Amino acid sequence: MKFMLNTGRTIWQGEAIEAGKNLELYKNAAAVCYMNAGDMLKLGVRDGDTIEVTSEYGNVVVSVITTKEEAPAGMIFIPMGPWANRIVLPDTESTAMPSYKGPIAVDVEKTDKKVLIMTELMRQSYLE
């Protein structure tokens, strides 16, 4: 299914960074995709299912969570971090930070693949 991806910081992702990026807490806060309930129904997923998100820049497997606030149909949100880095514009324009802002066209599909912890994700990113 086609979606527009937006990214940004969340309170939970910020809190988890302070605790440690190698912890399960960080994965649970940043390796997630927020989606509205109607889109989840169309995609055939429930909270905690895994999805694969693919953009022109790459792909990543994350867990899906129903948005708590109203979200437009066709829009998904993934917190800033290593998982979002796999699918956003990698050009940093000399800032050392990927381009997170602005919607990015993505394809989303349900998957049985597992969500990688950050160290596994980094190894996969640099060994491909």
UniProtKB/TrEMBL annotation:
The enzyme's E.C. designation: 1.2.7.12
UniProt-listed InterPro entries: Archaeal_lipid_biosynth_FwdD (IPR053637), Asp_de-COase-like_dom_sf (IPR009010), Formylmethanofuran_DH_dsu (IPR012040), MoPterin_dinucl-bd_dom (IPR006657)
Residues in Molybdopterin dinucleotide-binding domain copies: 3-102
Segment forming the signal sequence: none
Protein name (Swiss-Prot/TrEMBL): Formylmethanofuran dehydrogenase subunit D
This protein's UniProt keywords: Oxidoreductase
UniProt GO molecular function: formylmethanofuran dehydrogenase activity
Organism of this sequence: Methanococcus voltae PS
UniProt keyword Oxidoreductase present: yes
Primary enzyme class: oxidoreductase
